[in-house]
Amino acid sequence: MDQETEKLIQLFIRLHRKQLETNIRSVDHKTSESRVLYLLKKSNSRGLKVSDLSVALRVTSPFVTQQVNLLEEKGLIQRQRDAKDGRVVRIHLTEEGWVAAEEIEQNIYSIFSGLTAYLGKEDSDKLAELLTKALNYIEEQFMDKMRGKA
User: Fold this and answer.
1) Which domains does the chain have, with CATH numbers?
2) What whole-number distance in Å separates Cα of residue 120 and Cα of residue 124?
3) What CA–CA distance (Å, rounded) separates 46 from 139?
């Protein structure tokens, strides 16, 4: 394996570990739960369907349902029938869920505003561009494997 590839692998592993450590240390929720709460907060009061969360998180609906069940047991979210279409169930934050989502959002903002200040505008833009390019490549490879093209 060449040095550049090994370096990228190690950096991505370190980045992932730091992200998990930061979430565990600052918030009492798993990363997957934090992501659901964060997205529900961003949806404001309209709530989201399981399928909406699945698309936004890029995971399967059964995985989202499992997270929703756990968060509902903890009293952080509630399911409500849509007022316009009773067949549709939307997921909303409870008051306790809203408080948790606020903490998560503030934690995320604090970390990334600090990183932006540390890197400066030019390097922050460059990092965003490179991460977007890397993620697009990785997602494309993953989708090709899922379709049996690899």
Assistant:
1) 3-119 (1.10.10.10)
2) 6
3) 29
